[in-house]
Amino acid sequence: MSKTARPRSLADNEAKAVARMLRVSPQKLNLVAQLIRGKKVQTALADLEFSRKRIARDVRKCLQSAIANAENNHDLDIDDLVVSQAHVGKALVIKRFVPRGRGRSGKILKPFSHLTIVVRQVEAAAS
Questions:
Q1: Banded pLDDT at 123 (limits 50, 70, 90)
Q2: Which superkingdom (predicted)?
Q3: Which one of 27, 39, 121, 125 has the fewest CB atoms closer than 10 angstroms to its CB?
Q4: Domain-wise residue ranges, the chain
Q5: Distance of CA 54 to the CA centre of its chain
Q6: Does domain 14-121 have CATH number 3.20.20.70?
Q7: How far apart are CA 108 and CA 14, in angstroms?
C-alpha cells in the first residue's frame, strides 16, 4: 500500500546533484557556475581545480557528485558528459549588526546559496 513512484523530472540521459547552504552570496557563486556551464565535465573539473575562488572547491565537489550519480545511478558514460545546467538559488541570510560611531549601528548580511548542477550525456561526434 505504498504511493506510486514520482516520475523522473529529468531526461534519461541526465543526472543532477544539489549542494545546499553554501556560505557564499549567490552573486559570487554564479560567477563560478558560469565558468563551467556548457563545458565537458573533464574541462570543467580542471577549471575548478585551478580557480582562485574559495567556493570553487564546493562547486567541484557538487560536480563530482553529479558525475558519480550519472555513472552509478543512471549508467551513463562519464566521458560523454557535459554540464548542461548550473544554476544558483538564494537561501537564508543571517543578519548581524556592528556598532558604528555616534551611537549608530551598521548592518552585516551573511548570505547562503544553493547550487544545482545537471550533467547530460551527449553522443560523441562521428569522425
A1: confident
A2: Bacteria
A3: 125
A4: 14-121
A5: 14
A6: no
A7: 39
